[in-house]
Design goal:
heterodimer; A: mainly alpha; MetI-like fold; 10 helices; B: mainly alpha; 74% helix
Chain lengths: 216, 251
């Protein structure tokens, strides 16, 4: 490792890191916000489940580089526009989480839902205040997968000239120089670990009951 | 967009060393070789871990860490190393195959492990009670019952590898990625879109073919027809992770 090179390019690396953070974080959050209602629809209306899951699966088969390339043509954006990356990764996150949300809601014990109904909860209130909180651990597990793979996928966008940590890989290849490549990989892994930890802690803090019963 | 159609319907783009057919064969060669190597490594390992219940924490830990590893960075790192130490064609091909194998292992490994670990204990006990040995239980009961999950892991691995084989073009290898990378360099958006379309088509078609194969490989007793009306097992965080792992588009 050439520490001197890293120090000299500190400002640039920091800028790429910040760009990477928002390019990975925004789609993760947007994807989750979209997946909650869509997943709830797939859970509530059985007929829509198969269609939505098939659509999500089909979306997921499209390679990210292909989506990054095709989206500008579909949306009328410039190919260098970071919006393409945000939209593509939001779609992936949505595709991944729709099934997770629907399955997590399906797994809520029917007796609990029946109790909520018996206590006078309307379907929407039961969904938001009873079923969704109980589904948090499973949804959280899916969100961790989405967040971590988003961090990794963002770096591919550098091939289209959208600068973030992936730029370190290209720079290293062009200069025949290992330091930037290793630094880029380490920073990507670090970001992924931070995202993962934040989600894990949020799930823990928002589901105190999972630790309240001993032996569960 | 319409430019891509013109590009695709031009017969000149389909033949020769840079033509679609050659690129297809290259892309398929990278993909099938990598997935095959990954199966040989991950399937027995996953089966053993699921059967013995040992090192399960290690599997999810390694699988998670590998998912976070940026494939582009790993590819470029190994390619640079290959250029320094290996000779000839192998200098670039070997690193690319290694990266693709590394990507394909976690989905196959964790789905095989999860599939076997989630086998109904009653079925396992019944097999034992009938006098089956540990190996027989694994091969005749656990693996067939785990087959749907194993196949879904194989499909995830295939998708991930097809997608990531695209970025092999960055280090001067062939495959459909060439059209995207060269198109960008030559400001030829039509060629880029055509390349993107071809990769997506290969991914979707390959996935369908694997789905059909899966249909024949999975025992009819498991496809749901024999167990109509039974609720599927509640998804645990572990199972969700196994199902979704590798579903990351890769390249």
């Amino acid at each position: 490792m050439n520490w001197e090179w890293l120090q000299r390019n500190e400002q640039q690396i920091l800028a790429w890191t910040l760009e990477h953070v928002w390019l990975a974080a925004v789609p993760t959050i947007l994807g989750l916000l979209l997946a909650l209602p869509v997943g709830a629809i797939a859970h509530r209306y059985r007929w829509s489940y198969g269609t939505l899951i098939t659509l999500a699966g089909l979306l997921y088969t499209i390679p990210s580089l292909a989506l990054f390339v095709v989206l500008p043509g579909l949306m009328g954006t410039r190919i260098l526009d970071p919006v393409n990356v945000v939209v593509a990764l939001t779609l992936y996150t949505l595709a991944l989480l729709v099934r997770v949300v629907a399955d997590a809601l399906d797994a809520v014990p029917p007796l609990v839902v029946a109790s909520a109904t018996a206590m006078g909860y309307k379907p929407l209130r039961s969904l938001v205040t009873v079923q969704l909180p109980l589904a948090i651990p499973v949804i959280g597990a899916g969100l961790r997968v989405a967040a971590v793979s988003n961090v990794s996928l963002v770096s591919v966008a550098v091939l289209l000239g959208i600068p973030q940590l992936g730029q370190l890989f290209i720079t290293g290849f062009q200069l025949d120089f290992f330091t930037p490549i290793i630094a880029g990989i380490v920073l990507c892994l670090l970001l992924a670990a931070i995202f993962d930890t934040i989600i894990l802690l949020t799930v823990r803090l928002s589901t105190p009951w999972t630790r309240a019963v001993p032996g569960r | 967009m319409s430019g891509a159609w013109t590009w695709l319907t031009d017969a000149a783009n389909w033949s020769g060393p840079g033509g679609v057919w050659t690129r297809l064969l290259q892309h398929l060669w990278y993909t099938l070789l990598s997935v095959a190597i990954a199966v040989v490594i991950a399937l027995p390992l996953g089966a053993l871990i699921g059967h013995t219940g040992r090192f399960t924490g290690l599997v999810s830990g390694v699988a998670n860490a590998l998912r976070a590893l940026p494939s582009l960075g790993l590819l470029i790192l190994l390619a640079l190393w290959g250029l320094h130490t290996l000779k000839g064609d192998l200098a670039l091909l070997a690193p690319a195959i290694v990266v693709l194998v590394i990507l394909a292992i976690p989905p196959i490994l964790s789905s095989t492990y999860a599939g076997i670990a989630n086998v109904d204990p009653a079925a396992r006990d019944a097999a034992r009670g009938m006098g089956m040995t540990g190996t027989q239980v694994l091969l005749k009961v656990e693996l067939p019952v785990a087959m749907p999950l194993v196949m879904s892991g194989l499909r995830s691995a295939f998708l991930q590898v097809v997608a990531t084989a695209t970025i092999a073009a960055v280090v001067a290898l062939g495959g459909f990625g060439r059209y995207v990378i060269d198109g960008l360099a030559q400001q030829n958006y039509s060629m880029m879109v055509a390349g993107a379309f071809l990769v997506a088509l290969l991914a979707v078609l390959g996935d369908r073919i694997l789905a059909v194969i899966g249909h024949f490989v999975v025992s009819p007793g498991l496809t749901g027809r024999a167990a109509k009306g039974r609720r599927p097992a509640a998804p645990t965080a572990d199972l969700v992770a196994a199902r979704t792992i590798g579903m990351s588009g890769g390249g």
